[in-house]
Amino acid sequence: MKPLYEIIRKPLISEKANLLKDSSGIVTFEVNRAANKIEIKQAVEKAFDVKVKAVNTVLLRGKMKRVGSNIGQRSNWKKAYVTLEEGQNIDFYGV
Predict the structure, then answer these.
(1) Is 52 helix (H, G, I), strand (E, B) or coil?
(2) Separation between Cα atoms, residue 84 and residue 52, nearest integer Å
């Protein structure tokens, strides 16, 4: 297995992600594009000490961006929706 910091890049904290977390127990992460669902599940369980029920992944295309007369594209990236078992919770804020 790859190191955790190579699989999980960062948690995605947004209004939609917080609603999913509160209602369904689904947490979202930005992950390495080469990581598969099994590696993501093992990395989340090891990093946050929780039980994972399921992992769904989505490949997202980078947006076209323009700065002055130059046109470029952001990198493509992968998002993981991690469903936690009942009673499990990940607290990113530590409050």
Answers:
(1) strand
(2) 5
Are 51 and 3 in contact by the 8 Å Cβ rule? The answer is no
Amino acid at the residue 13: I
Mean pLDDT, range 69-92, rounded to an integer: 95
* Residue 38 CB partners (closer than 8 Å, separation 6+): none
pLDDT at 4: 84
Q: Nearest-CA neighbor of 40 among 80, 77, 86, 10?
A: 80
- Domain spans of the chain, in order of start: 4-84
Q: pLDDT value at position 17?
A: 94
Options 3.30.70.330, 2.60.40.2890, 3.10.180.10, 1.10.10.10; CATH of 4-84: 3.30.70.330
**Confidence band of 95 (pLDDT split at 50, 70, 90):** low
Query: Structure tokens of 66?
Result: 């323009």
